[in-house]
Amino acid sequence: MGRQPCCDKVGLKKGPWTTEEDKKLINFILNNDQCCWRAVPKLAGLLRCGKSCRLRWTNYLRPDLKRGLLSESEEKLVIDLHSQLGNRWSKIAASLPGRTDNEIKNHWNTHIKKKLRKMGIDPLTHKPLLPEDPQPPQSPLLCRFPEFAEADPAFYSNSPGFCTDEVPLVEPHEILVPCAAAAAAAPCSSSSSSTSSVSSSNSLVKAEEIQLPSMEFPDSLYFWGADDFIGWDPISQQGEGKIDPFNQRSGASAVFDQEPWKFELF
DNA sequence: AAGCCATCCAACCGCACTTTG
DNA sequence: CCAAAGTGCGGTTGGATGGCT
What we know:
Layout: H1 19-31, H2 40-44, H3 50-61, H4 72-85, H5 89-94, H6 101-118, H7 140-144, H8 146-151, H9 179-185, H10 193-198, H11 202-209, H12 226-230, H13 234-237, H14 251-258, H15 261-264
The structure holds a DNA duplex (21 and 21 nucleotides).
């Protein structure tokens, strides 16, 4: 008994979303209690399948999203969580408020993987790439990632083997969200049942757990402003108060720079 | 300037899991 | 309890972009 497709793809649009479509989806979701994703495109006047709408919203349009490359501390957390959880991107994303599983997955595949390999670490097992290496006295990552250990001595010291099979799964409530990450959520103006009901994504749930005020959208919708959004990331700016120079190709600038409509919505 | 190649990331696909009747 | 519908998740793809020759 096969599953039915999520939608009859006939006459449905695929590929990149246009500004107009984004506008429709945002307007609909903000102004309606989203009942079920399958109904959203029809009600919002979109020629998309519900799944596509959900993805677009959760990965790109959600106002609580943080854009740009992951900061070093976020990267560190991702590596740590990956060593415990494996490719459970949504679970990892749940510990990084404002980040999506897709974003983390992409970042892992394009940046972190490479970085780890360069350091002689198998990104899959988090163990040294060379098997002839005598077993390290402590975490291999600790040996090859001294700067991480320096930054956070507790990091890795608690994760001896880094074999995903050997480490028990961490329950969401057991994952400690670093203060910086938690703080990242705080500045966002908020509180509405609308958004939290809109998306059941783990990151939102997690955000609530760490006292993230639920989202509310100011009438002027100034939160869409690039300045607000970029300045909204205390993690990438922590410490020296600088923005990650590699952020220039980030989706943030891509979408916010080019879409002035978002500032005049509603 | 043009062509090629590598990289990045948004979006798609299909399976798994959860919910509902 | 079961089947169908709805949703979540992880893997993969393909277009856009930038760098190099």
